[in-house]
Structure formats: C-alpha cells, structure tokens
C-alpha cells in the first residue's frame, strides 16, 4: 500500500510560535559569510568556483534587465527566456552583493525583483507549472538574500513581492504536478517550499514538506528514487532529466536543513542513493535496473537510457559537501562526479538549476552546523485504522527526543501522550474508532523544548456508518482514510467493466430514497483514474447498480484525456454495464490541458426507480447529466468508487461528502 498524501489534513488557521530562520533558502547567513571569507582569501576550490561564477553575464555588474512582462508562458512559449535570464541575474547579483558588499549588485537585484513582482500577472501554457517551478525559484532566493542582508530594500516593495509570490506564482504550483515526470513535481515542491519560507507562511511550507515525503506524484522522494539501489524514475528516460530531478529534490533538502529539518536523511538517506546510482552510471559503470512503470501509468522503462550518459550536470558539489563534509558519510561516485567537473558552472539550460556548487557549497569536513537546535519537527504524516493511528515525521537536526501531543479539537487543549521518543515515528493505540484526533509534536534537547509542530488531523478508521472494501480483483491493500473534512483514497482496479467491476469503495447503507453529494479535489494521482458516486445492491463484482462516474475519456494524446461525467448502470446481476448518458467534457476551472486541476462536484439522487446524476463546478449551480430507470431493492449501498485504471494505485482526495434521505 502506497501511503496517501493528506494535504487537507493541514489546518491553515493554526497559529504556531515556530519561526523561520532567515536567510534560510539555499544560503544561510553562515553560507554567505563562508563564501565571502573564502573569496577574499582566494581559498581553493571556492575561489576557482568564484572565477567561473563572475564570467557569467548574469553575474556581471551592469546587467541590463530584459523584462518585465505582464504574462509569460511555456508551451506555447511566451517570454520564458526573458524571465529566466532576469531570474538568473537577480539571484546571481544577490550572491555577488553578499560576497563583495558592492551595493550596485544589490540595487540591480532589487530592480529586477521589484519590476517583475509589480508587473507579472500570470503564467500560462500547458507547461505553466514547470515554468513556475524553475525561474521563480531563482527569484525567491534572490529576494530572500536581499531581504535579510541590509541591502536597502524598501518594506513596501518587500510586501509587494510577498503578494506576488502568494497570488501569482503559488497558485500555479500549489497542487504540484502528479501528472508528469518527477522533475516537474520536484521543481514545484522546491519553489512552494521557498515561497513558504520567504513569506513566513507555515502552511505553504508544510504543504511542500508533506508532498516531498508523501505526495501522490513521481516527485515524492520515494517515488523518484524508487528503491534502495538508487534507481531514479527518469533513469530510463534520459540522464539529463534524471540528474535534474534529484538535484531539484536536493534543493528542498538544503532549505529544510537551514530550517532545522534533516530532509537529506529522510528514508535512510534515499536521496544520496539516487545520486550515487546516477553518478555511477554516468561515470560509465553498470548499475542494476528493474522494469518500472511510473506513478502516472504513462511512462514505462525497461533499461537505463544511454541518452546524455556521461554529460554530468552541475549538481554534485552540493550533495558531496552535505553527505561527506557535513555528515561524514561516504559517497564515492558522487565525489568522482564532483571532482570531474570542478569547478562547477551554471545549472543551464535556462533557469533549470542554480549550478555553481563549488562556490556555493564547498565546506570543510565536519562542518555540520545546527542552525536551530530547537526547531519543531515538520512534515507529520498520520495514517489511521480502527485500532491505532501512526505518526511519522521529518527528524530535526538538533533533537534528542520528541513528545507527542493530542487533542479532540483543532488548536487544543492538548494532552501529552508520549515523551522521550527517539525515533521519528510513534503509534497511538489509545484511540476510538471513527473519532477525529488532532496531533502536534515538540522536539527536545539540552537547550529545551521546541515550539509545536504544525498540527495534523486524522480519524481512527472511517466515521460511523462508513465502511471500505475492494470490489472484484482490486487489491485488498487499497485504503481510505478520513482526515477531518474529507477522505483520502488509494486504489487500484480497472473501474466499471462490462460484467465485472474492479474498484475500491467507501460505502454506507441508504434506506429508501436519498441523495449523495461529494466534491473531487485536484489532482488525482493518475490521469487514468475514474471516480464517482454509486448506489449498489451488493459488493459483489457483478452487482446491480447505478453510478455517476467522472471518467478520463481517451483522446489522440495520453497526456490530455477528455474528462467527462458518465451515468452508468447494470440492470441485472451479471449483466453488461450500460452507459446511459455521457455528459459534456469538463472545462476550466475544473480541467486545463486535459488535467483535473480544479474542483468538481457530483450528485446522485434516487427517487423510487429513477436515478439521476448532476455535476457542478461550484456546488451551487448544478447541471443535469441524465437519468435512468432501474428496479432496485429499497435499501441500497451508497458508495464512492475509485479505480486507478493502471497497474499502479492512484490517490484521490474527496471532501464535502453528504448523504441525505427523503
């Protein structure tokens, strides 16, 4: 069973005392001072890295801004190069300001940030999420350095920039990119995380942390570095993207490290294994490879790709310096790769990656610095059953032990239920089925106790009257969880078949006439996913039913299914399913470029022998999908069926579920 991401178990109204460390994205205050001191002393190899850095036009004094523009886009491309060039310049001028103290560099960075923040209103195109995850990451890093190094940036401009990141960039990225290869997801994660830190917004920051460790897409760490050997989801695609994807994830780790979280060490140093595997293969060594179908069901690989093999990207110094020089671990192939291209140059093309790791990340062995020895834990992932609730989290860099606190209401009052926990996980066995619990954590060391972690919620099993079960050949490891305001569902199965259905359902009894309503959240874990509402006589695979299904219709391109609602029924046990009505293809805001990027509501109603389906974009204005006449039993099972439509499981989030009787 692949765990589910429960982003909507985060409670955005919560207020916590935990504060962010600034500057605290890719560079901390100590990092900036380390570079400044090393360059002044011409310390190698940092000075050699600096010499490469200053040759880049984006680092040179007198850079002429190429923008701003009110709209940029990718696929179709509108102003992408313009934005990326300016983002590179803003970040690299901020670094030059920190190293040299020369105010003209800061002034240029400020002009670029201010101009784009005041002007850019939208990022468009089929690949908008990828564009928003790359160049803007450079821009938010520039803003972070300038804001916290006394560069003379006006407070009004800082607030305008915060607003820009929240209202223009973040909305494009907030649901990440579960429909794509993992580097898209990883780019979105790191930029969401950076925005959260810069804007001092714990909710946004935690959203990124939770997706990194527990997301539905290929960019989740354990979905991208798919096993303990270090094989990467894009290893079979080409080596340029495989290297980029793990590098984007490493940026998340560096930011989290500065905030006191050991994301580098998550899942037994899984990221390091990905780098070692990738470096080894690109240094012309053999590596093990297993046949792999990705999380979307669209990308299947049978062997490592030779494309771009040996073309080492400027991504290895950061990882070498963390795992070897900070942590004292071994990384022989990463070390060889870093040495081969030292000093590292730019992370091109465009604004794909910062690069310049020799300058930015070289440090002495044993130089681990715990910036915040009392940092709160982050990225809490709860999983629940009727008998217990298990919590796991990202370890802090300075914790000796953890304490778990629980409440029956959001915000408390909390009761401490466990102390002196040394591992980054805990199982609460004192729970009651169907009850929603709210959890937080603190970390403790010799300097005291941290602030509380961001609160998460989950029920012990499903709410009263609701049950769950796989139908047909669907795997028994499928699972639904209730997180306080909705359901998270992991499911396999092919959906509603001709004479047999294979899906996973959440269900309850409906006596007589009634209506079930729900809202589907963006985005499902696979574009082959079908989901909907059902009234069914039994849980056998060939049972009589009426179902209202959101279905990804086939088109000429697998990347862009035609999402539409179908009313489907089986009039007799074992009979062939009948598609009674096919509704119109969904449009914006629910669907953009064939992706379920917005909310959509479904409603299924029974009145005697008439079963009627409705759809809605907002839950207020409803469109009739169709009706069917069926002779069914008085008492039925009302259900929410989900199927992945592929060999891997899908993940779906559903809320605003209601069942009413007439």
Automatic annotation (TrEMBL):
Q: Which residues form the Fibronectin type-III domain?
A: 373-463
Q: Which UniProt keywords apply?
A: Lyase, Signal
Transmembrane region(s): none
| UniProt-listed Pfam families | Alginate_lyase
Query: Is Nucleus there in the keyword field?
Result: no
The protein depicted here goes by the name: Fibronectin type-III domain-containing protein
- Source lineage: Bacteria, Pseudomonadati, Bacteroidota, Chitinophagia, Chitinophagales
